[in-house]
Amino acid sequence: MNILIIEDEALAAERLQLLLKQYDADIKVLGVLESIEESVQWLQKKASPDLFLMDIHLSDGHCFEIFNQVLIQRPVIFTTAFDNYALNAFQHYSIDYILKPVTAEALGAALNKYKAMAKAFTVPDYKNWTGVLASDSSLAKYKDRFLAKVGPRTFFIQADEIAYFTADNKIVTLADREGNRFIVNYTIEKLEPLLDPHHFFRINRKMIVHSRSIEQVKPHFNNRLKLSLKNLKLSEDIIISRERVAAFKKWAEG
C-alpha cells in the first residue's frame, strides 16, 4: 500500500509514519508534504498514491484547495483538530475523518475500512461477465413496483417514483416524490433486501430513502448526519444514525 501524507506539523507527520509502520511494516510512505502548493506540484508530476492521509489545516490554507487544482480520485483519510469540516471531507472521497491527536486505534480502524473497500477502487475485469450474466439465474432481482393503499383504494407505485419508506410502530408508509403517502404491507426489515441498493439506503432503524430524493446532507451532533429531501417536509428531522454514517458515505459515492 502506497500512502502520501499531507501534514504541516512535523511531529504529527512523524507520529503518522510511526503508526503506519506499527500497523503494517510493508506500507510505503511516498512523501510528506506540508502545503497546498507543494502538494499540487507533487501530484502534477507523479501518479496518485493508493491512499491519502491529509490534514485539513495546512500552512497556506485548507487542504480542499488541492482538489480544486488537481484531479484526485483516490480515497482520503482526513485528520484535523476540528470537527466542523466533516461535510466538506465527505464530498472529497473521504473514507474517514479522524480528530487529532490521531490514535493507533482510530488510524487502524480507518485503514481496515480502506482494505475492506479496496475493491471499490479497482477497475473490474469485464472480459467474462457476459457469459456469467447470461448463465447466472441467481442474480438478485429487485422490486420495480409496489402495491400501496390509501383507504379502500390500491395504487401501483413504481420504484423510481418513491422518495422514502418510513415505519411508525408496525405501520410502514411509502412516500412518492410529490409527498403523497401510501400504506404498504411490508416491514422495513423485509423491504430492505427487496430494494435496489444502488438507489435505496436504510439510514436508520425506521427509514429507507431513495438517492434521487436527497437534496442536502449536513453534519449533525454526535457524529451523525442530517438529510433534507427535495420538495418534501417531514415533521421530524431525518437523521442518519451514527453506526450507518460510514456505510452511507460509501453508498453515496456510488
A few lines on this structure:
The chain has 254 residues and is an alpha/beta fold. Helix content is 27%, strand content 33%.
Secondary structure blueprint with pairings:
Layout: E1 2-6, H1 10-23, E2 28-33, H2 36-45, E3 51-55, E4 57-58, E5 61-62, H3 64-69, E6 76-80, H4 86-90, E7 94-99, H5 104-117, H6 129-135, E8 145-150, E9 153-158, E10 162-168, E11 171-176, E12 181-184, H7 188-191, E13 200-204, E14 207-210, E15 214-220, E16 224-229, E17 238-240, H8 245-252
Parallel strand pairs: 1-2, 1-3, 3-6, 6-7
Antiparallel strand pairs: 4-5, 8-9, 10-11, 10-14, 11-12, 13-14, 15-16, 16-17
Give a description of the structure.
- The protein is an alpha/beta fold.
- The protein has 2 domains: 2-121, Response regulator (Rossmann fold, 3-Layer(aba) Sandwich); 145-252, Beta Barrel (OB fold (Dihydrolipoamide Acetyltransferase, E2P)), CATH 2.40.50.1020.
- 27% of the residues lie in helices and 33% in strands.
- The strands form 5 sheets. A 5-stranded parallel β-sheet has the order 2-1-3-6-7, with helices on both faces. Strands 12-11-10-14-13 form a 5-stranded antiparallel β-sheet.
- Helix 4 (86-90) links the parallel strand 6 (76-80) and strand 7 (94-99).
- The longest helix has 14 residues, at 10-23.
- It is elongated.
Low-confidence stretches: none
**How many structural domains?**
2
Mean pLDDT across residues: 87
- Give the number of DSSP strands: 17
Report how far the terminal alpha carbons are from each other: 23 Å
* Fraction in helix: 25-40%
Category from helices, strands and their pairing? alpha/beta
Please write the CATH class name of the largest domain. Alpha Beta
